[in-house]
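Students often ask what a 'structure token' actually looks like in practice. Rather than answer in the abstract, let us consider Outer membrane protein, a protein of 331 residues. Its sequence is given first.
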Amino acid sequence: MLKKTTIAILGLAVSSVATAGMYSTPPAPSCAPGDVTVPCAASQWDIGAQALYLKPIYDAEKGYDYNSTTTTNGVKEWDGDWGWGYRLEGSYHFNTGNDITMTWMHYDVDTRNSGYFGVTPFSATNVPYNLFLDNKFDQVNLILGQHTDMGLLKNARFYGGLQYADIRIHAVNNYTATPLAIAALAPAGFRQTRDSEFNGVGPVVGVDYAYDLNPSFSITANAATSILYGSSRYSGGFVFAPSGLVRNDVYASKKSIVPSLEAKVGVNYAYELAQGVLNLEGGYQVVNYFNALPTRKFTVNGVVPGTIRIPTNSDFGLFGPYFGLKWVGNA
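Now compare that with the structural description of the same chain:
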């Protein structure tokens, strides 16, 4: 009887200990560096600006035209100029490494090239022209991010949200000779316009990565992708001067789904002050929107150059260096 009583008491004791452990207060989350952790709760804000020095690129169908200095089938690249743009950003940081961020990237650069020719509807002979090209690009992101530390030297910020993009390519062939058939209608010459546009909105996800070389210097990298839904448009026509009469004009519009990829690699220097941290950053970036711009095929399969241009689509991309400043302060 004593043995049974002893066993029952021990069983109740073990059960009580287990139950107490089951319902005890869980340990507080650690914010010390470890394998994968999040920062301690804090409220901060930041504002930054970057200067971008970029060059545009397109598919071969859009990035080439016929060359007046070689044979009939010679080609010449559009070769958009390098030019300056900018990127602005602002963030509010809250909780344990969360942030809400808005960024705006803007680029607007003109290019003027010469030495092209093409066949117009007004003459079977090749007509030389100079090319004017205007590239306009705007990208706006509204995203939510989460900062994580991976050990003492590595950290990453994962983010997702919405992206809006607006791409506008305005191309003008300024012809330097006038066919006899339209000489009376265009005594001051004529030009051809070829405009391609896309604007759309959709989800974007990405990651910012940093590897600390020391407390101030770090190597940085970024990768992002988006899928946008919007409208693609193509328009063109021949404009006679000085009357402004438009002939053989064309306009087309369609709904499009356009994916994009963006990547950066660079360095960052963090200078700590009493009121916050000043970051100096620089590096190299590329961005590409796939099949974003409606255009006409460059290849003509043996047909006289310029007489047949089948509708198609072209990528739009930008690449080049960037550098800038970002201030992070306590809220």
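One point worth highlighting: The first helix runs from residue 2 to 22. Ask yourself how you might have guessed this from the sequence alone, and why that guess would often be unreliable.
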